[in-house]
Design a protein that fits this description.
20% strand; Ribosom_uL1_bac-type; rRNA binding; tRNA binding; rRNA-binding; RNA-binding; three-stranded parallel beta sheet; globular
Length: 236
C-alpha cells in the first residue's frame, strides 16, 4: 500500500524541479520548504564514489562549521585526576573517571558527544558495543581522544562536528538550522565540501562526488550542482 503524502509535503514537493540547483538557490528553497511545526535542521546527503568496506576507502573526520550548528551540544568527558577538573572548567557538562564509565555502562547516555583522554581509552573501549552503534565512541580521527580538553570542548560546542561515510558510501551530515540565513548555510556547506575533498580516501578511484542533496529535517531533497559549489570562493 502506497504511503500517503501529507498536504504539507505535497506543497513542498511542488516547488522543486528535477534538476541540480545552484548552491544558494538550493538553500533558499530548503528554507521555503521547511514548514514543519518545529525548528528543522539543514541536512546534506553526499553520495561518494567509495566502498567503505575497504580500509583505504573510508571517510571519518570533523568539520568546523563557521556559522555553527545552531544546536546546544552536551559534552561528557572521561579523564583522570586533574584532567577532570580541567574538563569541568573548560565547559564540559559531565566529567568523571571510572565512576562515569560505570554510569554509561548502566545506560546513562545523557550527552551528545563523548571526549576521552588517551590514557582512559583502554577502559572506555569496553563501552564500544553501547557507544559504537550510537556514534558516540571517542576516536582520534574524530578529535574526541585528546589531552587538550579545553580546546576540544570549545571547538565542539562552537560548531565542530564529526561525520563519516556510512557503509554504502553516503555521508549524512547536519550543517545548520533551516532558520539560518541562506548565505550562512552556504558558508557552512562550502566548509563541508572542502573538508570532504581535503580528506579524500587514498583508495577512492574515478569520480569522487556522485551526488549532493540538501533538505530540511522534514522537507524534500533538493539536488545541488556540485561543480558550482566547488568553484565558489569566499573572501577574495
Amino acid at each position: 500500500m502506497a504511503k500517503k503524502v501529507s498536504k504539507r509535503l505535497r506543497e513542498a514537493l511542488s516547488k522543486i524541479e528535477d534538476r541540480p540547483y545552484q548552491p544558494l538557490e538550493a538553500l533558499e528553497l530548503l528554507k521555503q520548504t521547511a514548514t514543519a511545526k518545529f525548528p528543522e535542521s539543514a541536512e546534506a546527503h553526499v553520495r561518494l564514489g567509495i566502498d567503505p568496506k575497504y580500509a583505504d576507502q573510508q571517510l571519518r573526520t570533523t568539520v568546523a562549521l563557521p556559522k555553527g550548528t545552531g544546536q546546544k551540544v552536551k559534552v561528557a568527558v572521561i579523564a583522570r585526576g586533574e584532567k577532570v577538573a580541567e574538563a569541568t572548567a573548560g565547559g564540559a557538562d559531565l566529567a568523571g573517571s571510572e565512576e562515569l564509565i560505570d554510569e554509561i555502562g548502566k545506560g546513562m547516555l545523557d550527552f551528545d558527544l563523548l571526549i576521552a583522554t588517551p590514557d582512559m581509552m583502554p577502559q572506555v573501549a569496553k563501552l564500544g558495543r553501547l557507544l559504537g552503534p550510537r556514534g558516540l565512541m571517542p576516536s582520534p580521527k574524530g578529535g574526541t581522544v585528546t589531552f587538550d580538553l579545553a580546546t576540544a570542548i570549545a571547538e565542539f560546542k562552537g560548531g565542530k562536528i564529526e561525520f563519516r561515510a556510512d557503509r554504502t558510501g553516503i555521508v549524512h551530515v547536519l550543517f545548520g538550522k533551516a532558520t539560518f540565513d541562506a548565505q550562512d548555510l552556504l558558508v557552512n556547506l562550502k566548509a563541508l565540501q572542502e573538508t570532504i575533498d581535503r580528506n579524500r580516501p587514498s583508495g577512492a578511484k574515478g569520480r569522487y562526488w556522485r551526488s549532493l542533496y540538501v533538505s530540511s529535517t522534514m522537507g524534500p531533497s533538493i539536488e545541488v550542482d556540485i561543480s558550482s559549489l566547488r568553484d565558489l570562493k569566499f573572501g577574495e
